[in-house]
Amino acid sequence: MRNVKIGMALAGACAGLVAGLFGAGGGLVLVPLLTLLTDVADDSVFASSISIILPICLTCIVVTAMSVGIAFRPALPYLLGSVIGGLCAGIWGQKIPVRWLHRGLGLLILWGGYRYLC
To answer: Vertex 24, ends 22 and 27: CA angle to 5°?
Structure first.
């Protein structure tokens, strides 16, 4: 019998570590870890990861801004696209079967790994 609270804490810690070290990717590790280490239902994993990533991102922003500073101006043009993409994902993501979301995430992880290794 696995301890769900330890699994949740471990998944969150790994996501925070990855996001903090690499500036992104916390959700890429969080979704598989939530599936493996917790009892979060498959149809709730993606929504749960989004709610977990927000505080991780805010924490990373604060820590980075305090230690080395952040140039927000170069990021501004990307914000509009991010908001539009997030809205589309929120609306249409509910209509995509969870199995396909998992497969899509897996392919994205593999593509990213290949891209960085080769």
So the answer is: 125
Rounded CA separation 71/12 (Å): 27
What would the two tokens of residue 84 be? 């539009």
- pTM, full prediction: 0.66
69: left (phi over 0), alpha (psi -120 to 50) or beta: left
- The DSSP code for 68 is T
* CA dihedral of residues 61, 62, 66, 72 (deg, nearest 10): 40
Report yes or no: 25 and 18 within 8 Å, Cβ to Cβ: yes
**pLDDT tens digits for 20-34?**
888 777 888 888 888
